[in-house]
Input
Amino acid sequence: MQTVISVTNLSKHFKDAVAVDDLSFAVYRGDIYGFLGQNGAGKSTTIRMLLSLIRPTSGRIELFGMNLRTHRLDILTQVGAIIEKPDTYKYLTAFENISLFANMSGVKIPKKRLMEKLELVDLAERANSRVKTFSQGMKQRLGIAIALVHDPGLLILDEPTNGLDPQGIADMRNLILDLSRNHQKTILVSSHLLSEIEVMANRMMIIDKGKKVIEGQVSNLLDGTNMIVELQTTEADKTFQVLENSKWKSYLRSRQNGKFIFEMDKIQIPALNKDLVEQGIGVLHLQPRHSLEDYFLSITTSPHVEAAAN
Amino acid sequence: MWKLLQIELFKIFRKPRTYISFGAIAAIIILIQLGLKFDGRSYLELLMGDISASFEVPYDKVLNGYFVAFVILNALLIHVPLLVALVAGDSVAGEANMGTLRLLITKPITRTQLLLVKYAATVIYTVMLLAWMAILALLMSILFFGTNDILIARNDVMEQIEKADILWRYMAAFGFAAVALSTVAALAFLLSVFADNSIGPIVATMCIVIVFTILSELKIPMYDKTVKPYLFTSHMLAWKGFFYSRMGPDNSVIRGSIENLPAIGRSFWILIGYIVAFLGTAIISFKRKDILS
Output
C-alpha cells in the first residue's frame, strides 16, 4: 500500500493555544480518508499545514514520499484542494476561474479538458456565467472542478458540504465517491458529521482538541462487535504503565480526559477488568459504548472534554 | 513568471474598481482643460499677480498645451498616489478578503514569486495610469491649446523654456513620476500583506502619504535636515526639477539643461531604496505568515 500522506508528531501552537497536538496519521493510495471532529477540533489547521498555508510548530509532513518543507512545489503539483469555502473570483466567469487556476498549476491544459472538468461537476452550461450569480452548491462544485483541473492524485477537501442544502450534500457525496471509484483519486475529506464520513470514507480518524482520539477502518469502527470501551481507574499513570506492558496496549486507542479508550470486542471486557484488579488497580468505570456515533456524540457534546495528556 | 504576470494583469483589469482611477483622472483633466479653455485668462492673471501690472503678458501664447499640461501635473501628481493605493492596497489583502489567497498559496508557485508578480502587475497598472494621464494631459492639451514656449513660475521669477526644449522634460518627468508612484504602490503593497481586508491598507497608505506630504511641505527649518530628507514624499516631487533649467549669462534658459540633475538622481535612488525596503519587508513577512483567511 503506497502512503500518500504521512503525518508524524505534528503540532501547531498559536501563542499559548494548542491547535494541533502531536498528531500522527497516514493516508494510503485509493483511500477516502474521513477526518472527523467538532468545529475547532483542529481539522482545518491540520489541513492548512498539509497544504503549506500554515507552518507547523513541530512535526513532519510527507506527501507522496516527499518532505513538504523541502519539496513543496513538487508536492503541490499533485494536490488539489478546497479549504473551507471554495472562494473564487466572483467577478469572473466559471470558465475564466478554472482557466486562471489551471494556468497557475504549471501545466498546459487545453480548453477541451477545462470544459470536461466543468462537465464533471455539471457546470458546463454555466461556463460563461459570472460566479457571483452562482448558488452555494454551484460554487462548491466549481471549487471541486478547480481542485481537479490539473488532474492531481490527491484531493484534500475541508468540509466540502458546508452550507449546502440536502440535495447539494447528496450531490457532493456522490461526486466524491465517483472521483474515488472512477477517477482513482486519493481523498482526504474533513467533516464534523459522522453520518457524512460513514457513507463516504473507508478509513477515518476522530480528532478532538487537536489530538487524535481514534483511527481505523470505518467498517471496523462502526461494527457492533468492535466496541468503544471507556475505562477509568484510581491510578491513571500506573494503569497506563500496566497497559503499555500488556496485550491491552494493542486495543488502547487514546487517553482522554483521565479516561482510557479501547476498541475491542465486548467479550474481552471481563478479562481486562481482571488483569487490572490483579495489578492492584481500582476500576472506577468500565463501560462499553454501543457505537462510534455514541462515542463521537459523547465527546462532541460534552463541554468539559479536556485534551488528553499522555 | 510571465504567465503569472498575465494572470495578475487579467485579474486587475477585469475588476470594475480598477477603472475608477482612470475615470477620476479623465474627469479632473477634462474639467481643468475646459476651465482653462473658457477662463484661462483669469487664471493666468491670478498666477502672474504683480508681474502683469509691469509687464504685458501675451496670454494667448502663455496659455498653450504645454502650460496646461504643467498645471494639470502639478494638481494631479500629489493625488494620484491615492488612486495607486486603491489597487496596490487591494493586491494581497483583497485576495485574503475574497478567500482566494489560500487557493493561490496551494498552487505550485513560491510565495516570493507570487508577491513579485503581484507587485510587477501593480507597477504596470501604475505606469498605465500615468500613460493615461500623459495622453489626456499632454496630447489632448496640445490638441486643444496648441504648442508654444512655457513659462514656469519659480521663486517669484518666470522662466521661459522654448517649446522645442519641452517635450523631453515631460517624458523625463513622467518616468520619474512612475518611480515615485511605484514607491507608494510598494508601501500599500507592504501594508496589504499584513491585512485581511483591503480597506485597512488603502486608508493607512493614504494617511501616511498625506501626513508625510504635509511634513515635506512644512516650512519649519528644524525639520529641513532632521525629518524631510528621510520622507519618501520629499523626494516624490523631484520630477519638477526637470523643468528647472540653468540660466545663461544673459539670464535666459540654457537649452537642454537641468539645474540640479544630481539632486534628481539622489531622489531617484532614495525612492528605489524605499521600494526595495518595502518590497523586501513584504516578502520576508509574507513568507513567514500563516494564512488563516
